What we know:
The structure holds 2 protein chains of 2 kinds. Chain A is α/β, with parallel strands linked by helices.
Amino acid sequence: MDQQELRRLENQCIQxxxxxxxxxxxxxxDVRAFVGQMAxxxxxESLKTLRRTMPLPNILGRICDAPCEERCKRSEAGEAxxxxxxxxxxxxxxxxxQKLLLLPAKGKRIAIVGSGLSSLTTAWDCLRKGYGVCAFExxxxxxxxLADRYAGLLPWRIIEEETAFLVKLGMEVELNAAMGExxxxxxxxxxxxxxxxxxxxxxxxxWRLEEDSSGNIRVEPRTQRTSREAVFxxxxxxxxxxxxxxxxxxxxxxxxxxxxxxxxxxxxxxxEKEGPIxxxxxxxxxxxxxxxxxxxxxxxxxxxDEEALHEARRCLQCQCLECVKxxxxxxxxxxxxxxxxxxxxxxxxxxxxxxxxxxxVNSCSLCGLCEVVCPEDFAMQDLxxxxxxxxxxxxxxxxxxxxxxxxxxxxSLSDRFTLARHEPGLTASxxxxxxxCQLCGSAPDKVVSVYKHLRSALTxxxxxxxxxxxxxxxxxxxQEQFADKLEGIKGQWRSLGEPxxxxxxxxxxxxxxxxxxxxxxxxxxxxxxxxGGPIPHYKFSEPVAIHDPCTTRSEPDIQSSVRRILARLSIxxxxxxxxxxxxxxxGFGGLQQNAAPEVAREVVHRRxxxxxxxxxxxxxxxxxxxxxxxxxxxxxxxxxxxxxxVSDPAARERPGWSQxxxxxxxxxxxxxxxLWSEEPMKKEEHQKITLQIAPEVxxxxxxxxxxxxxxxxxxxxxxxxxEKFYHQxxxxxxxxxxxxxxxxxxxxxxxxxxxxxxxxxxxxMEAAVS
Amino acid sequence: MNKEKTQGEESNWRCRRCHLDLVVxxxxxxxxxxxxxxxxxxxxxxxxxxxxxxxxLGKMADVERILEDK
Lengths: 770, 70
């Protein structure tokens, strides 16, 4: 990822886009934070938020005309939040005296003419920026017209306090200023670096500046410059009406321009974000209950504390988080894609130090739900996969992240499982069944039944290919290994004369479609929908809830086929809210279960709780993952090819990793023997060792990713070489062996037949006496 | 080099081949191209190192993680 790509991706995530209120505010007050703090009853914080951005908050906070309310999202469900009234309630409270941090004095002075809100704002901002300020007021008291105009809202005391505050900060005031004289501006510019004319309080004078058709001084919007250099102006009515917040905003724009003018930099560059802006934020209104605004019991005094609290609590606190709402993984890392993009970029860029986002990169299930729900189609899965590929290329992928899954894949691609044969007795295959590794590891009997059914229903030769689609290598970011393994599968396919493959696993299907498009594939469910399958008789009174595998997200036809098959079986169904295109991963995808088992556990538990009903799915891995969360779950093949010996297939336990490998090996042996009359593979010596493993030990092995065959290898090595430790009290042995990258330790004892396993653990570090 | 007797549970394990009690002393450990020395129990004769469950899943796992993320 380069800087340009980083910016593009960061920009695609809209979570940090401003909410409508602050985007509409000409001063960009952080209205969402302000109202949020009020809703929590944190008045001191809410006042701090106003003071952070708002000039003269004690004045403006009382008279702000709140154009933000017009764009408030709440108005789509009830009425807009009364933000102006909340501001009044906030600044009306007793509070600590305000402070304003000033930059070091620049030794330059600005003349502010008039003492309306725009002039006072320019003074406020210029003082902050370190300029000397002198205010020229034609009347006897500054800001007097504000007191007249907003008599009910703005007590004279407040105006006095606020102008006194400016004086305290260094503002000089010249009252009864004789600004009617034609050379007033000339004289100002001999003493001051720049002049601001506050047109909100000045009566038309003879300024000798260009005017527009209506006789007002011509002022360029945003820069607030007039026809004369160093003279700026603002404060005229906005869109035909007097707007205090616009007066303040123009005073602020002018102060910016004056600063730029004095510093001799562009008056216009990079100012697009000043004033009201558009926003790309999305906020879902789903489930938002309409609520009317709270009306103050006394409209004159405004909201009481209680009323303000209730009004503030109606605020939606607009944000997007559409993806985070539906994804345990995105939620768990405490951020959102924009933040994650930066973290992943930094993770890739650092040379020394800890790669803190490795876990973030490796925990995504790559299921793609974020992209579907994102208003801007942000694809976290692409970002994570590319980051993984980059880590592997640079040798920075933690070996422990995916190794177990890659070794499981290696097993499924070894001759202990792989097989490619034409239909028994035939020498050509128009089609071949590709059940995939997980169905074979989970329900090998079903593979036998389906293959039999396909052979009888379709002519032209129905070959069989046992193997693995190499998805684990793809998910792990191992591009070279993935390409290499895929080549091997293509070899199997070519050896059968390039038949069309009938896929039982939607992951395999997607992998072939995306990465080996020359292989023609069709889903088993489409085939069974078209050719018709067995129709066993059921009495299903309760509907089953359909869990679509995440790899069918973009396969609506397959999802429809499954529903038609269920209809044919007269099985009533319930659709999950997050189903079809918006289905969720079971926690197996993207090797989440390997790199972040704790995330995967939460993913599948949350998924399992979406409905009380039994789930029906058509991916062996999904079914078994759900079963691991104690969810009753059926595979579609449980219904199509029921096993009379299994009375309650939904309650089947998830087979462990060792069992899955064993079942794959046994399935190959069985098929070879039953269909092609061939002898099974010879066992290696260590495989002949019998193990006795208690269920609680089995659970430990499963969690620690230790296979029974690993134990067999350790014991075989220990017994052959007498390399083991002996416990003097229990008589047990403990031995270690490192078949490849991991050292396995086994605590075991001799049994009448074979060995009893008491415990096992592993480490990757090598230890030897130096 | 200091070689001490093993303590607690570990003191019950003996090297089966050499029939000797284990001693605790410097052992070289290596991972991801990093190598350092730490004290671990081992057989004083053949040098076979004993890694307890506590060490493997505790300290060793922590260091493995740190080195993997380096």
